[in-house]
Amino acid sequence: MPVALITGGSAGLGRALVRALAEQGWTVVTDGRDRALLSGMDADNALTVAGDVAHAGHRAALAAEIERLGRLDLLVHNASTLGPSPLPQLTDYPLDALRRVFEVDVVAPLALTQTALPALRAAPTPTIVVLSSDAAVEAYPGWGGYGSAKAALDHLAAVLAVEHPELRVYAFDPGDMRTAMHQAAFPGENISDRAEPATVVPALLHLLAERPDSGRYRAADLLTAAR
Questions:
Q1: Which residues form the domain of 201?
Q2: Cα(150)–Cα(189) distance, rounded to whole angstroms?
Q3: Percent of the residues in the chain that have a pLDDT greater than 90, as a whole number
Q4: Which of 124, 127, 191, 213 is the most core-located residue (most Cβ within 10 A)?
Q5: 28 burial via Cβ count (<10 Å: 0-12, 13-18, 19+)
Q6: How many domains does the chain have?
Q7: Residue 89's CB: how many other CB atoms inside 10 A?
Q8: What is the pTM of this model?
Q9: 163: enclosing H helix or E strand
Q10: Full 3-state SS string of 2-71
Q11: What is the per-residue pLDDT for 43?
Q12: Beta bridge partners of 178
């Protein structure tokens, strides 16, 4: 049975992906900072570890769970933080908040990858997915902190793919979704026109099934290709 580690699986796209892979027979290890949101997920092949991915001790707990299971086929870096809400301009951005964004969105994924790499490399089809954003490639007012962190994460994934050609490393851009994070980016606005996270999962499953060359992929393009 293949094993996946998906960070930030307590809500949004992470939770939808955990459910989809568990339904396909995967064993899925996931985490989140909110124990209440994680409650009820320790079933149907899903194992939860509460904690903050930015903390070394929590990453060690995730690694211990993978070691106990004896394999790791897929690592999905889904956990991230938006930063202050409402989104500030860069000239007003609190630097401590910016450090937190980069710690969660860039440093933590790299640290967890370093820890998980031996288990991944032993898998038949080792795959890493980092969750990207259009803010990583487009300049939007207020999105400088989150966007620059996602741009850094994209580049981290690209370099990792070159350094480790035995891996498939994908930066996956899901597009706008109806999530708590997206609502925080637009406080007070109606975001009901955005896609539900579950509707994006088929694009990611298509990517994992087809396993194209490492690179950056958009959900909208993958959904078109899957039809």
A1: 3-226
A2: 24
A3: 85
A4: 127
A5: buried
A6: 1
A7: 11
A8: 0.96
A9: helix 144-163
A10: CEEEECCCCCHHHHHHHHHHHHCCCEEEEEECCHHHHCCCCCCCEEEEECCCCCHHHHHHHHHHHHHHCC
A11: 61
A12: none
From CA 146, how far away is CA 73, in angstroms rounded?
Answer: 28
Q: What is the CATH number of the domain that holds 129?
A: 3.40.50.720
Is residue 146 part of the annotated active site? The answer reads yes
How many residues would you count in the chain?
227
Residue type, 116: A
Question: Mean pLDDT in the chain?
Answer: 94
Among candidate residues 140, 146, 170, 217, the one labeled active-site is 146
Tokens, residue 156: 């981290």
Q: Is residue 79 within 8 Å of 7, Cβ to Cβ? A: yes
Cα(74)–Cα(129) distance, integer angstroms: 8
Tokens 């009901």 correspond to 192
Residue-wise pLDDT tens digits, 109-140 = 999 999 999 999 999 999 999 999 999 999 99
- For 26-61, how does the pLDDT look when each residue is reduced to its tens digit (9 = 90+)? 999 999 998 888 877 766 688 999 999 999 999 999
